Amino acid sequence: MTRRLVVVSAGLSAPSSTRLLADQLADAVTAAVTARGEALTVDTIEVRDLASDLVTTLTAGDSPRRR
């Protein structure tokens, strides 16, 4: 069974200290899980990259990705 870890980072700079910490935590979790012989998939979500779409959706009520 492959486990899944989703890392969410909301720092403003690139790379942010939040993202660097998130990467370190993901690496530690990956090491622990693989040491047990299990597989792990890590997905990272950068809120900063989604900010424009989030604001548009909240203010206009429409997702720019649907257009």
Q: What attributes characterize this protein structure?
A:
67 residues; alpha+beta; Rossmann fold; 2 strands; elongated; NADPH-dependent FMN reductase-like domain-containing protein; Flavoprotein-like_sf
Protein model, in words:
The protein is an alpha+beta fold and about 70 residues long. About 50% of the residues lie in helices and about 25% in strands. The protein has one domain (about 1-65): Flavodoxin domain (Rossmann fold, 3-Layer(aba) Sandwich), CATH 3.40.50.360. The chain has helices at about 15-35, 45-60, and strands spanning about 1-10, 40-45. It has a two-stranded parallel ribbon with strand order 1-2. Strand 1 (about 1-10), helix 1 and strand 2 form a beta-alpha-beta unit. The longest helix is centred in the middle third of the chain and has 19 residues, at about 15-35. The model has no long low-confidence stretch (mean pLDDT about 85). This is NADPH-dependent FMN reductase-like domain-containing protein. It comes from Arsenicicoccus piscis. InterPro entries: Flavoprotein-like_sf.
